[in-house]
């Protein structure tokens, strides 16, 4: 069993919550979300916010908070082989109540099918909050071009400041 090593990113001004599944090996090594260089999360968020792509953890955190975006994962702990979401088992869900209690989250978005699977199975029945599934930004989701991802993820634009 591997425990989630990265704390959530949010503050009281966060308006949306984006949930992934569980950090990749690279993300766990660097201690921050979406650390694999081929993951399109950071270029996508930067494009949606009309900003340059952040490089450091501090720049990434500032970008999220500046635009009212909270970020975390559905799994607090799990068993996983490498970084493959398809191998997640024995998922222990994260407790979202600190974020939901402290921030004014108006919408939850799910980054990919694995996040959705565990959100709807383990978290949504407890918190009774709907969520919108978005296509995964993972390099494993190669059928989605950056342009298609940008179009699909544009649903977050009305929520970001």
Structural write-up:
This protein has six helices and seven strands, in the order ββαααβββαβαβα. The chain is an alpha/beta fold. A four-stranded parallel sheet has the order 3-2-6-7, sandwiched between helices. Strands 1-4-5 form a three-stranded antiparallel sheet, with helices on one face. Strand 6, helix 5 and strand 7 form a beta-alpha-beta unit.
Question: TL;DR of this structure?
Answer:
The chain is of the alpha/beta class and 161 residues long. The chain is built from 6 helices and 7 strands.
Question: Can you tag this structure with a few keywords?
Answer:
four-stranded parallel sheet, 7 strands, globular, 161 residues, alpha/beta, three-stranded antiparallel sheet
What's the main sheet like?
4 strands, parallel
Helix fraction, binned, reads 25-40%
Structural class by SSE content: alpha/beta
Strand order of the largest sheet: 3-2-6-7
Number of strands: 7
């Amino acid at each position: 069993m591997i425990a989630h090593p990265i704390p959530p990113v949010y503050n009281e001004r966060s308006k949306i919550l984006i949930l992934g599944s569980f950090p990749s090996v690279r993300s766990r090594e660097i201690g921050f979300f979406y650390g694999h260089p081929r993951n399109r999360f950071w270029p996508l968020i930067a494009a949606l916010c009309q900003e340059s792509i952040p490089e450091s953890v501090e720049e990434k955190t500032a970008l999220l908070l500046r635009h009212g975006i909270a970020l975390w994962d559905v799994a607090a702990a799990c068993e996983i082989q490498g970084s493959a979401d398809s191998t997640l088992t024995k998922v222990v869900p994260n407790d979202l109540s600190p974020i939901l209690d402290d921030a004014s989250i108006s919408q939850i978005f799910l980054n990919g099918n694995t996040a959705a699977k565990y959100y709807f199975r383990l978290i949504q029945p407890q918190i009774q909050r709907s969520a919108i599934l978005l296509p995964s930004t993972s390099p494993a989701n190669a059928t989605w071009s950056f342009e298609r991802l940008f179009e699909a993820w544009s649903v977050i634009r009305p929520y970001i400041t």
